[in-house]
Amino acid sequence: QAKADGRNSIRFYNPELQRRMERQFRMEAEIRQAIDSDQFFLHLQKQVGGNGKLIGAEALLRWNNPSLGMVSPMEFIPVAEETGLILPLGNWVLENACRILKDWEQEAATADLSLSINVSARQFHQKDFVRQVQRAIDEHKVSPDRLKLELTESLVLEDIEDSMDKMEQLHALGLHFSMDDFGTGYSSMAYLSRLPFDEVKIDKSFVQNAARDRNQRDWVIIEAIIGLASNLNMRVVAEGVETQTQQSYLCHLGCRCFQGYFYGRPKPVEEFNVAIKSQFHGTESS
Ligand code: C2E
Ligand code: MG
Ligand code: MG
Ligand code: MG
Q1: Could you report the predicted ipTM of this complex, rounded to two decimals?
Q2: Alpha helix locations (H) across 125-188?
Q3: Which atom of ligand 1 is nearest to the CA of 262?
Q4: Where does the record place the EAL domain (predicted)?
């Protein structure tokens, strides 16, 4: 009886929260099923260099649920993290990334591309993460230096010792690292210099604000990130580039690698591969 009253009072005082929680509970059950029934798939989004040349892609997880429809990773990744379902899900992404890389290695058009995957904190900090990565690479016989792990600042800072240890081991295996959403977290620049990151990704919020408002503060931050990264010999990728204007600003500030709708939306793997191959053969013959 008390329990029922509790539920009623939640519903009475905060129907919005109630709906959100119900959706979350439902989602947890749905994610469990979805892993076994092919509801997850990957999109790939281009990354280009200054001259417009394709340099790689980021794999982005997609979930098409029969009753919920397309669910954004912004919604289901946090639920998967909380419930531990990110572990099987993260492994699924890793496996499939290796398959894509293997497939790419067979063709001249794609053989030089790198593939970035997003790794969540709980996945990275589990005890045998390094072994899982090694096993996936060995099993699919892909060259590890084409695989890039995107980690966020908060992931690294959650356990700096563990991060350093795992990153060094993975780096020794040949993997590369990108610091995702740089500038949005704790901005612990001191740590950045001590960890084997190859790349930082400027968060799309800076990219978009800087060009929209010519907001001085965002300009200064972008400039500082680019300066810092180049002094540490890291590549800088600007994410979320949507317009020519944004690209021009970023170019002016010294950024040479880009990702965003301006170059291409994230696309299903097959569609991405077909586009890349036809483009490649197009330029070859012309
Ligand atoms: P992220 O890693 O920072 O990925 C970039 C996000 O920006 C993606 O959102 C991408 O679709 C979006 N984006 C790309 N270009 C543009 C642009 O020009 N404009 C705008 N407005 N957005 C752009 P998405 O796919 O919804 O993913 C959201 C976040 O979910 C990712 O942010 C990442 O943190 C997480 N995520 C996605 N896939 C995975 C995964 O496989 N594992 C884990 N752990 N997290 C993932
Ligand atoms: Mg990312
Ligand atoms: Mg990002
Ligand atoms: Mg982001």
Answers
A1: 0.98
A2: 129-140, 153-158, 160-173
A3: 18
A4: 24-280
